[in-house]
Structures are given as C-alpha cells and as structure tokens.
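Usage example:
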Amino acid sequence: MDFLKKFFSSSGSKSRAKERLQIVLIHDRADISPEMLDNLRQDMIAVITRYMDIDTSKIEMDFDRADRSVAFVANIPVIRIKRGVAAAREGERG
Amino acid sequence: MDSRVIVITSGKGGVGKTTTTSNLSVALARGGHRVVAVDADIGLRNLDVVMGLENRVVYNFIDVLEGNCRLNQALVRDKRVDNLFLLPAAQTRTKDAVSSEQMEELCNLLRQEFEYILIDSPAGIESGFRNAAVGADEALVIATPEVPAVRDADRIIGLLESMGKAPIRLIVNRLRAQMVRDGEMLDVSDVLDILAIELIGVVPEDDSVVKSANRGEPLTFSDVSPAALAFQRIAMRLTGKEVPFPKLDEENGRGLFAGIRKLFGMKN
Ligand SMILES: Nc1ncnc2c1ncn2[C@@H]1O[C@H](COP(=O)(O)OP(=O)(O)O)[C@@H](O)[C@H]1O
Ligand SMILES: [Mg+2]
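Running the assembly step on the lines above writes:
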C-alpha cells in the first residue's frame, strides 16, 4: 500500500517546503523592500514609455518560479506603439 | 595559545543552540582540549542547567566586565572532565547591559586561557546575537529541516558573512529519517542546496537529548545514542579530522536493525 501511495501521490510536503523556501529567500536575500519595487517600477515605466504608451495603472510585477529558476515577470498593458521609434534609434546610432 | 572563538547561532529560537554548545564543549574537553562554554543569552540563561552546573554559579561574565570579580572567579569548572569551564550569563540583567566592545574584550581575555571558546548565542538578529558573534572568528549555524528555521538560518548566514566570520558551517538538527523517506521532511541535501554553506554535521531527532537535559548531563559524557555520536563526530570535524558522513539511516543509528525489525513485524 505504502508503495502504491508513493507511486501515485505526486510528492510529499517536502517538495512544497523546498519550493516555498526558494521563493521566500529570493525576497529575503535581495531584501526587496516595497520602496525598491516602486523604484524599479518607475525606472521601467521611464524606459518603456520611450517606445510605447502603456497603461501604468495596470502594471503587474512579481517574482515567479519556473522549473528551477526564478523569473521576474512584469505584465505591462500596451496602449500604442510610438511611431518612428525604430527610425529614431537608427538615427541615434548613426 | 592558538585559540578559536566559535559562535553557535541560528536566528530562530529552540532549534538546538544550547544543546549543541553543551555537547560540543564536553566532547572537545574529553578530547583533551581546554574549553570554555560561554552563555551569551543574557536574561534567559540556560546553558548552566543544560550542563548541570547551575548550583555552582556565583558570578557571571557581566560581573567580570564590570570589575565585580576576576575572570577566574566567574568561571565554573566542570568536575566531570578536565579542562572544561562554563562562563555563565547574567540572569537578572538585560541584553543592553553589555556593548560589542566589551564582548570583544571578554573574548580576548578568554583567548589567553582557552583553546576553544564556544559561545551560545541568543535567538534573534538584534543586539544579543551581535554581541554573541562580535568576538568570534567562526560560526556554527543550527537549523532544523523546517521552513521557518531554514529561512532564519539564511538570514543569520548573511549577517555572519557581513561580519566577516569564516568558516560559517551548518548543523542540521532534529532530522527524522522516516519523515525524510516519506517525502515529508526536507533532506540534508535540500537544506544544503538552499543555504549553500559547508555542512559540519547532522543530528537526528533523539529522545535522549531531552533526557540528558533533564539530568544536566550532556550526552557526549558517555552516551552512545545517535545524537551523542553525531555530536562527537561534529566535535572531531571541528578539530580538523576527516570524519565521513553516515548515510541517513546510519545517522539514526538503526539502519540495519530497523530493516530487520520491520521484516519480523517488530516495533521499534
Ligand atoms: N536532536 C534533538 N532531538 C530531540 N530534542 C532536541 C534535539 N535538539 C534539541 N532538542 C530539544 O529542543 C529544545 C530546544 O533546544 P535548545 O538547545 O534549548 O535550543 P535553543 O538553544 O536553540 O533555543 C530542548 O527541549 C531540547 O531538548
Ligand atoms: Mg538556548
């Protein structure tokens, strides 16, 4: 029975413990304060709005675990891509 | 004398700092080293009772720092083994009674007399912890294989690193082999994955720890229970000896026997 249980149940509480620790320690180690997240948000908006109009009221940012790595995921609704951005960049470089 | 000041710490309370300090101190002294166990948990002293020396405490290290007595008067000699001393904490004072500078001064005083100076740290990351760690060269971090303990250990490791302590080594305490096998407890390798520091030992969950604290007789005086053997191995590794790490079931001291018992349907 034990053998069957082990076979069918995905895994015990240990794997959850490990996952949760890995996530929580990213925050702890980086010491990501609300202020820092806010600064990051402002900086991102400043850069992105050079290229497109975005809905700043609907930005979502978080840390996400994918497989064995951690991703910083930002969801930023785009309202409009600015015309001529590509051309301007070409000009800058030239 | 070539001295080593080692702070025993954890962040989280109740994970085994005092147990570890007492057992390692006894094991090192029995190995022929001159050892002092320092209780840095001011206001919540209990190393004295765990070591069974509470009736012989007269002065404490704050008395030494304040000039109320000499160091030799405050040191409690353990009569059961040569070269083992306890330096008690003050019970009726608060953590603010000492400064970091004073703690460093105390450690330097002890360096003149002892080879191993083991400091039992209070829980937390505030002044009590900092005072316990400030005079230390190296650190032992204790964590049980549980989420809050590992998280706090990570925090403490960061602080110890920023204080320049090295090496910082890990003891995993209260490991339950059966739960690990069932996938219901973090294994040592998981904890190491997460904390990424050197492991110096694994201590199994063992009822004899509670019994020895009841009696005031650290296990490493004589006991051959799994936890006693684990602490003896850690003490040897501390002195620089290469001691192999037993397998999970051997660490619990009942690998083969447990298998045989199970086979015959016997209870443990
Ligand atoms: N390996 C172990 N097996 C069983 N009980 C343990 C073990 N280690 C510690 N304990 C118990 O846990 C409690 C807390 O231990 P203690 O050493 O006082 O922790 P701390 O000093 O970190 O607060 C005590 O009651 C002790 O007996
Ligand atoms: Mg304690």
